[in-house]
Amino acid sequence: MKSTKLVRPGHWFGLVVLGLLTVGAGSRITGGGTGASATHEVTDEIRPLPNYVVRGLDWLADAQFENGGWGSGQHSAQHVRDPHAVQIDPATTAFAAMALMRSGSTLTSGPHHTNVSRALDYLLGLVESSDPNTGQLTTVGGTQPQAKLGQNIDVSMVAQFLARALPTIENDRRLKARVESALDKCVKKLEVSQQRDGSWNQAGWAPVLQSAAANSALEAAAKAGRKVDQEM
């Protein structure tokens, strides 16, 4: 839903920071020792999210487009600050949806479950309509994520989101089958786009991060029970 309060910076990297904040805010860290030898243990006790994180999550939810997507804009037009005045892209959508999931929302529960569900619907449609024989997921180019992390970052991030969503689907066989098929398709796209040296490096100025994102996607897919070529 559009709102005038959303006309403020919405740089895509903030989504990553927000995701990390929600992880940290949701766990209690206990210390064992001090200084360089200190050890830390993350317990299962969940603390309430700080107000600043809640406000950020609410802003993020309001920034979603009606069709379920999010956009971070073109790298060449960073002066555009209204999140509803930019083009939707898959990587930003996946980033945002995972931030909401990390804060405790799922497809069916949590304060932002509707946003997560709409994002899944949007991304499933995008993956299902994409060319299965290419490593690309979208014809949209020049986005903020792509400028740093290359053209394949859309596939990597969507695969990570699908892998996170899949285990939460229990009572909807049709939806689960769609997510499994879409995730398998993303894995295939990563397979065909991998370089001979094992990296992923399709433009962008951070090839190491590109490869890390793709590898994380493959690990997440395997953990979710999907077949991944171990030679990749």
What's the topology here?
Layout: H1 13-25, E1 29-32, E2 39-42, H2 51-62, H3 90-102, H4 113-129, H5 144-149, H6 153-165, H7 173-193, H8 207-223
Antiparallel strand pairs: 1-2
Helix pairs in contact: 1-2, 1-3, 3-4, 3-6, 6-7, 6-8, 7-8
Question: What's the N-to-C terminus distance?
Answer: 41 Å
Give the low-confidence spans.
1-5, 7-13, 25-40
Quick check: average pLDDT?
A: 81
Oligomeric composition of the shown chains: single chain
Q: Characterize the overall form.
A: globular
SSE order, one letter for each helix or strand: HEEHHHHHHH
- Number of alpha- plus pi-helical segments: 8
Proportion in helices:
40-55%
Overall radius of gyration: 18 Å
Q: Which structural class matches the secondary elements?
A: mainly alpha
Fold and architecture overview:
The protein is mostly helical. It contains 8 helices and 2 strands. It has a two-stranded antiparallel sheet with strand order 1-2. Helix 3 runs antiparallel to helix 4 (113-129), helix 3 (90-102) runs parallel beside helix 6 (153-165) and helix 6 (153-165) packs antiparallel against helix 7. The termini are far apart.
What are the main properties of this structure?
single chain; 232 residues; mainly alpha; two-stranded antiparallel sheet; 2 strands; 3% strand; disordered N terminus
Briefly, what is this?
The chain is mainly alpha-helical. The protein has helices at 13-25, 51-62, 90-102, 113-129, 144-149, 153-165, 173-193, 207-223; strands at residues 29-32, 39-42.
